[in-house]
Known about the structure:
- 42% of the residues lie in helices and 25% in strands.
- It has four helices and five strands.
- It has helices at 3-23, 34-51, 58-71, 107-117, and strands at residues 76-81, 85-92, 95-103, 129-136, 142-149.
- The strands form two sheets. A three-stranded antiparallel beta sheet has the order 1-2-3, with helices on one face.
- Strand 2 and strand 3 (95-103) form a beta hairpin.
- Helix 2 runs antiparallel to helix 3 (58-71).
- The longest helix has 21 residues, at 3-23.
- The chain is globular, with a radius of gyration of 26 Å.
Amino acid sequence: MDSTNKENINSASRNSGETELQDSKINIDFSESEFDKKFKAVKEKVETELALGERLSVIKLIDGIIEHAWIIRSSDIHLEPGPKDISVRFRIDGMLQDVHIIPKAIHSEVVTRIKILASLRTDEHQAAQDGRFRVTTESNDVIDVRVSIVPTY
């Protein structure tokens, strides 16, 4: 077979392949899904609030963290105080994952906000307390939250 015959066969097979492909085109939409948009918006909301430093709103921060956990289907939110900061961890599919870092300077404000939401005693620091509250998100989803506060020494 000479090179011109190979080229003719290749172009013929390409042409017939193009016809087949044109008949069975599949449109794939690579745009962001609604989940991706919500996830980015809520995560940015928390990160923007944390970037404000001392001027941040604890109310907006806690609301953003709860909504972020809701969007990614987290079953638990853990706030774990460390020597220099507070780790915010979400339980996703049974595994705790570090999600945010909160400055240690606002630890008492964060705990007080959660206690107020859960109707717990804000003056009790030596005993464990349990409570619950309900949050309605911007998209009108209702989230039931159970709270357990354990003193750290």
